[in-house]
């Protein structure tokens, strides 16, 4: 394709990828904030009874801030340079590629930590005697400590057998809360990785021909 046509494709791609990453970044932040507020209350956050992977906030700094930095730049440059003849977009394309690499790393970190959070299950107040770990109730990770099972088996058991979710007494409905939100973070961060990778390629092409469509 001609340089002009290639520049047009690069610019259009940026104006699609940028807003998509903005929306996904904000969704990631919202999902992580909700993970810190099981049941929609701040009580357990104040008490410190929140899953360590939720408190790590991968959806805020990884799938959120890192992605939003890149998305804001990509969107601004993509629209500001629509139809112009010369707006210094080779430099901006290079910056967008660098920021997209940062977004890719952040989304990947969010994906890994969310996967571990989903595998381990939530921190909750549960009846330890049901798992043979003593008597009475305590705060802990009942599915992580489940009778010495292998991690894959343990995860499969608790994710597919909802009858086990009732082991958690507090916060109410915390297992479903964690499963839904960590699964959402996994889906969002995976999509962010795909889009960030696409924008890295797009940014490299932009370094060669710019984003501008008018010649």
TrEMBL record:
<dbReference type="InterPro" id="IPR008661">
    <property type="entry name" value="L6_membrane"/>
</dbReference>
<protein>
    <submittedName>
        <fullName>Transmembrane 4 L6 family member 1</fullName>
    </submittedName>
</protein>
<dbReference type="GO" id="GO:0016020">
    <property type="term" value="C:membrane"/>
</dbReference>
<keyword id="KW-1133">Transmembrane helix</keyword>
<feature type="transmembrane region" description="Helical">
    <location>
        <begin position="21"/>
        <end position="40"/>
    </location>
</feature>
<feature type="transmembrane region" description="Helical">
    <location>
        <begin position="175"/>
        <end position="195"/>
    </location>
</feature>
<comment type="similarity">
    <text>Belongs to the L6 tetraspanin family.</text>
</comment>
<feature type="transmembrane region" description="Helical">
    <location>
        <begin position="60"/>
        <end position="82"/>
    </location>
</feature>
<dbReference type="Pfam" id="PF05805">
    <property type="entry name" value="L6_membrane"/>
</dbReference>
<keyword id="KW-0472">Membrane</keyword>
<keyword id="KW-0812">Transmembrane</keyword>
<feature type="transmembrane region" description="Helical">
    <location>
        <begin position="94"/>
        <end position="116"/>
    </location>
</feature>
